[in-house]
UniProtKB/TrEMBL annotation:
Enzyme superclass (EC): oxidoreductase
Name under which the protein is recorded: NAD-dependent methanol dehydrogenase
UniProt keyword annotations, A-Z: NAD, Oxidoreductase
Gene that this sequence comes from: mdh_1
UniProt keyword annotation of Oxidoreductase present: yes
Residues of the Alcohol dehydrogenase iron-type/glycerol dehydrogenase GldA domain: 8-185
Family label: Belongs to the iron-containing alcohol dehydrogenase family.
Keyword field contains NAD: yes
Length: 389
């Protein structure tokens, strides 16, 4: 057995712990640049409360921007220029608050501020640009997730998009793992049911794909089982009753575990195709993952039946089933969960046309697909996507 394990240095988890922000942030610096991933955070007073908490800890703060879309190259480059104009440097740190978009933008900007070999993040992204490496440590970063989904608060990458030319690639370095994670599940209570469903299925997809990845590792696998045991019953509860403390706590914890798992073990076909669906079809990441998950489990059944059975037996120990029955039942349970929270079954239901399939196949060959437990040739991926139309 031979593996490495990465996780945030400090995780602070619990209902109402947002109030500790100032005291926690004081270890990072004396001026905070705030990047938000949701306009509702400002409208509901959360951003103002955040600034007051920082002020009480003698931390100056600058609210930089809100991003409601998945971050694009222009978002990173423009935000980096804003921070440079504000003299960002020693003693400063970033706070990314919101869903994956806000946290990813904060992570990317914190890295670009200190790495100045190029003016554009494109040159540092995987598979595009000049292939530059992040050689300087990013500015310190605190991540405050307000949705339970991407696990970006615990990962070592930020996903950056472009539409001309079309790509969705990662800026990745071990130093990009946030220094402090403050996870208060209460912050997610205002998230609408549809977003709760889609982000929650992103977390569940990450837990399942990390467990069966060809790069799977023992510690992340243990975390995946714990996360799935929490998330599968909790997600419908959180969708149907947004103020459910039990549902929100379980989903926030599961999402955090999913981020730690994927940072160590990688992902698979669902996350391979999801960026392509985002770039070519403007489908949100969580929805794309949710829709692709049952097909991904079926595609990998031949090489991961044992692992599916392990997961099912951990989730439902009272069921005395054969390995084959348990594995098939896991796929059935995931489809039932999708149906209950109103995830569409077909790509055509979310506007995908047959003419887009070739571009989707071509754009699915990224880091996530390389973690799939078996190779999915272009011809087979084409057939899978066509079968979902």
């Amino acid at each position: 057995m031979n593996y490495n394990f990465f996780a945030p240095q400090q995780i602070n988890f619990g209902w109402g712990r947002f109030q500790e922000t100032g005291n926690l942030a004081a270890s990072l610096g004396t001026r905070a640049f705030i990047i938000s991933g949701s306009r509702s955070l400002a409208a509901s007073g959360v951003i103002e409360e955040l600034r007051q908490l920082l002020s009480r800890a003698s931390i100056k703060s600058e609210f930089i921007r809100t991003i409601s879309n998945e971050p694009e190259v222009t978002d990173v480059d423009q935000t980096t220029r804003v921070l440079r104009n504000l003299g960002a440097g020693a003693g400063d740190f970033l706070i990314g608050i919101g869903g994956g978009s806000g946290i990813d933008l904060a992570k990317a900007t914190s890295a670009m501020i200190t790495n100045q070999e190029s003016e554009t993040v494109v040159d540092y992204l995987e598979g595009v640009g000049r292939g530059l490496k992040l050689t300087e440590a990013p500015l310190p970063l605190m991540a405050i997730p307000t949705t339970a989904g991407t696990g970006s608060e615990a990962t070592k990458n930020a996903v950056i998009s472009s539409y001309a030319p079309p790509f969705k690639k990662s800026l990745r370095a071990e130093q990009m793992i946030p220094d402090i994670v403050l996870c208060d599940p209460q912050l997610a209570c205002s998230v609408p049911p549809e977003i709760t469903a889609r982000t929650g299925m992103d977390a569940i997809t990450q837990l399942l794909e990390s467990y069966i990845s060809c790069r799977a590792q023992p510690i992340p696998q243990a975390l995946c089982l714990q996360g799935l045991k929490l998330a599968i019953p909790a997600l419908p509860e959180a969708v149907e009753n947004g103020n459910s403390r039990r549902g929100r706590e379980a989903m926030a914890h599961a999402a955090l575990l999913s981020g730690i798992a994927l940072a160590n073990s990688g992902l698979g076909m669902a996350h391979g195709v999801a960026p392509a669906l985002g770039i070519h079809c403007k489908i949100s990441h969580g929805l794309a993952c949710a829709l692709m998950l049952p097909a991904t489990l079926k595609a990998n059944y031949s090489v991961r039946q044992q692992q599916y059975a392990e997961i099912y037996r951990f989730l439902y120990p009272e069921q005395a089933l054969s390995a084959e029955q348990a594995a098939e039942s896991l796929i059935d349970e995931i489809q039932k969960l999708n149906d209950r929270i109103q995830i569409p079954r077909r790509l055509s239901d979310v506007g995908v046309s047959p003419l887009q399939i070739p571009a989707l196949v071509q754009s699915s060959r990224g880091n996530s697909m390389s973690g799939n437990p078996r190779e999915i040739p272009d011809e087979e991926l084409t057939q899978i996507l066509e079968s979902l139309l």
